[in-house]
């Protein structure tokens, strides 16, 4: 698994700043109402944003880029036989699939 920075410096600084602001707000609310699970969940999400800013790697951005790359590759194929890659010459009387091994 190759993890390299996929967000810029400015984006990282914004994530750190916003994450710390939300984290401080959540911890202040969590001190007053410790039974509220929603504040704890938001605090975990804010801490994750701070970590993404420090490391400069966002898994959601990486997933989006990978999906865009896969869609781009899929659009370049000229073959319209979805799922029938092994079948050739369907008009034959035998209908034997091609064995690539």
Report on the structure:
By secondary structure, the protein is mainly alpha-helical. The protein has 3 helices and no strands. It has helices at residues 9-32, 37-55, 59-75. The model has no long low-confidence stretch (mean pLDDT 83).
In brief:
The protein is mainly α. Helix content is 59%, strand content 0%.
What topology emerges from the helices and strands here?
Elements: H1 9-32, H2 37-55, H3 59-75
Helix pairs in contact: 1-2
Largest sheet: none
Integer average pLDDT:
83
Shape type: elongated
Radius of gyration: 24 Å
Order of helices and strands: HHH
Termini separation:
29 Å
**Helix share, percent:** 55-70%
Q: What class, by secondary structure content?
A: mainly alpha
How many beta strands in the DSSP annotation? 0
Question: Helix segment count?
Answer: 3
Provide key terms for this protein.
101 residues, mainly alpha, 3 helices, elongated
């Amino acid at each position: 698994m190759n993890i390299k920075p996929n967000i810029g410096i400015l984006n990282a600084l914004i994530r750190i700043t916003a994450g710390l602001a939300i984290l401080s707000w959540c911890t202040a609310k969590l001190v007053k109402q410790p039974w509220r699970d929603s504040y704890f969940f938001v605090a975990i999400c804010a801490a994750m944003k701070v970590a993404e800013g420090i490391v400069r790697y966002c898994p959601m951005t990486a997933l989006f880029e990978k999906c865009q790359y896969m869609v781009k590759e899929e659009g370049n194929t000229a073959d319209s036989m979805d799922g029938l890659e092994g079948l050739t010459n369907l008009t034959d009387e035998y209908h034997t699939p091609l064995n690539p091994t």
